[in-house]
Amino acid sequence: MRGVRAVCPLGDALALVSVLRDGASDAPYPMPGTALRRGRARARGGRVTGRSGRAVLPRAPRVGLGLVAALAALVVVVLGVAYAGDSEPGGVDAWVWAAVHGVGPPWRYAALAADFLGEPVGAVTLVGAAVTGCLLLRRPRAAVFAVAGTGTAVGTTTLLKPLVGRTIHEGHLSYPSGHTAFVTALALVVALLAAGRPGLGRAAGTLLVLAAALVAGAATGWAQVALGAHYPGDVLGGWCTALAVVPATAWLVDRVADRRADGRSAPAAPAGGDG
Length: 275
Description:
The protein folds into two domains: 15-44, no CATH class; 62-259, no CATH class. The protein contains ten helices and two strands. It has helices at residues 10-22, 32-44, 62-83, 91-100, 107-116, 120-136, 140-164, 178-195, 202-226, 232-265; strands at 167-168, 172-173. Strand 1 (167-168) and strand 2 (172-173) form a beta hairpin. Helix 3 (62-83) crosses helix 10 (232-265), helix 5 (107-116) packs across helix 9 (202-226) and helix 7 packs antiparallel against helix 8.
């Protein structure tokens, strides 16, 4: 058959079978290369998203993460109302603060190192490394998501702080914790990109994303309380902020990128009629 190699790898053979099985494609006369790419994506269980690359919000953990994001947003609102205008630790805050605050070496050094990751220099370095890695892997959509996901998380905490008005150490706005939100958001970005690789099921993908968020949030939150920069409730609010906004940002990035790709690949309207 003209246009198809006589001997092809197993992956290409499966792709062609998928194309033939599914019938006609979106375009009336698709190019062989386009059909082959679509067939490969279907054979691997992935989602075709056009020229801009794979989706940054994988299909497998999408429902679970949506429920988690909604619950996290509710926690942020409830805590914000409870801490509005407050400047003293609550009962749970005081208990955790007494157990964690004021650690000495070597744990203090570990806390300072974790805190540095959320400072401007550390944050820019981490995001720059993530963007560079995505571009080297030829995933520009993922690079955009790395910036948008972390930026949205930090921006949300910045907007919420004056609205809630909780303070620590003579008037410093503290709820929710921006450091915790940033590090958790970056961990979520990396985990979502890893969960989108073929072979991970829904449960495994969701578990990977939540585990990454839990480890990053716990480590950064501990550092913030140990150094006396935030109350435990501030840390919980920052962690939930990242859980709420990062999946939504991923969905938005995919939607915008897919629409742009569809617009570029749409066939041009005919100049005249058939005669």
